[in-house]
Write a structure and sequence with these properties.
The structure holds two protein chains of two kinds.
Chain A (H helix, E strand, L loop, with lengths): L3 E3 L9 H8 L21 E5 L2 E5 L8 H5 L5 E4 L4 E4 L9 H5 L6 E3 L10 E3 L11 H5 L5 E3 L3 H19 L8 E2 L2
Antiparallel strand pairs in A: 1-8, 2-3, 4-5, 6-7
Chain B lengths: L2 E5 L3 H13 L4 E6 L11 H5 L15 H4 L2 E5 L3 E5 L4 E4 L4 E3 L2 E4 L3 E3 L12 E2 L4 H12 L4 E4 L3 H12 L5 E3 L12 H13 L3 E3 L4 E6 L5 E6 L4 E3 L2 E4 L3 E3 L14 E2 L11 E3 L4 E5 L4 E4 L3 H15 L12 E6 L2 E7 L9 E8 L2 E8 L2 E8 L5 H12 L9
Parallel strand pairs in B: 1-2, 1-7, 2-3, 7-19, 9-16, 10-11, 10-16, 11-12, 18-20
Antiparallel strand pairs in B: 4-5, 5-6, 8-17, 13-14, 14-15, 20-21, 22-23, 23-26, 24-25, 25-26
Helix pairs in contact in B: 1-7
The chains are: A alpha+beta, B alpha/beta.
Amino acid sequence: MLSLREESIKCDGCGRCQLACSLGPALRVPVNDQGIPKLRPPLLWFDEIEGRRQIFVCRHCENPICVDACVAGALWVDSKSGMVRVHQNRCIGCYSCVMECPFGALRIVYPVEEPSTNGVVHKCDGCIGWQAPLCAIFCPTGALQTAKNAAERASKRRRERAMFVSLTTGTVSCAAKKHG
Amino acid sequence: MAKYVIIGNSAAGLAGVKAIRSKDPCGEVTIISDEKHFPYSRVLLTNYIAGHIEIEDFFLEDRDLFIRLKVNQLLGTRAIAIHPLHRTVEMETGQVITYETLLIATGGLPAFPINLPAKIKGITGLRTIEDAINIRQQAMAGAKVVIWGGGLVGVKLACALHEAGNSPEMIVSSPHLLSQVADDEGGSLVQRHMERHGIRIRCSADVVRVVQDSAGGLKSAVLTGGEQIPCHLLVVCKGVRPNTSLVDKLLSSSGGIPVDSRMRTRLPNIYAAGDVANTYDITRQESRLMPIWPHAVAQGRTAGLNMAGEKAQYRGSLPRNALEILGLPFISMGIVQAPAQEEWEVSIHHQGNNYQKLVYFKGRLVGAVLTNRVEPAGRLQASIRSAAGDWLDQYSV
């Protein structure tokens, strides 16, 4: 399966990963009735948290808690590829998965043309048919890289765990006022 | 060949069956439920009432899942007793089923206040497909609906009816909505958002009795002050209580069935999971009922793995809820209201619909409330769990 290594510290925020992702695995630019190119929303995001840039992208976990939390049967694990996939037509936009994922890899996106309609979950689709994820192919700084072999994938799992620990401690500081 | 019996076919029961089958492909698995339906998602009932989904969208898996997994199905019949000494389950039909390990995943029942006369036409809870179909039919026919209770189900139902074109009215005994899962400010923010959409909400009010018309139907609900609200349908959303009737004679289970971190009850070879189980809350450091979907799935899986001979540990419960309220996302988790004591600290950022409250106990994050910008929720949950890590040692029945 495709596997991604992520080192947010190398990210300079150029956004090429998002653009590549928006093209989709077919690398096609669909146009609307007026002939204007219309890309799909990207399936990964980056943002600054307390001065540190952070990339939010799906790790395709071995035991994905987002799938456990899905009340609509929309998230599922593709046992052939090991990827966490989504049936968008089943999603009701309830935010349960958003609440679970420590990597911030799922977001509810509302259609731009009709913001009043229900949003559905968007997450990495794993670039079916590609040897490497497009975001990693286009990343110029090495913040996103492909894990090439089994050893690297195993090290990715270790990193993921270490990452989980660093995410789950420290980054939320206690800048609090008493009994606010 | 091992004999597994599972009572209940919702989130926990289904997760239990799948976990057992992942470890034991041959053992005899039987699933029992008084509902005749294939496992479905109760959380989606309000989405059906809103008209967003159809009945077939309720069902969580392919219809042939139980056949593929070689599971005996006893759906639509009720288990009436468990005999731990003989290791049998007695069915209402007189049938007796023997087990080697048993999972009780009987879920919850709507809690009905005692001042309401039972079985009046026009008074209902919202728990099953039949309830949802009934409410939707009446709402579409223009019935005046009053929702009693301002918790998660009440709020979701009010929004669903509003989206379906009905004008429901809410009666809430607390001073603001979502008093069990949100702090005062977060709950009030949700309430103002719903009121802006035209949903009528009466707080600090309760239904004391109902008035019937001459045909026996519902005419109005009488509030604490004596005010009468005309209504055809009164939906009671005052929470759920654990459905412990099968074990009431066997162990004290008033607050749900106590289980340990492997989902074992005090009865030999009997496990419990889901809304019926009383589990350890990692933020409050005490065992209690936390009937939410992700808990049910995780507990069901833990129970199933242990029944099949694994040593699986449940990671402890963290009460949490995510809602989409007429376009406004809302997420709360852990302890949301800090007592005015030295060790507690609170951080609040509030701007328009963006509200973020973090609650700390002795410098450790123990709770959060978020509206509108909810993307940090997953990271915050991970923080709460990792801060609670060293508390897990105390987790036992």
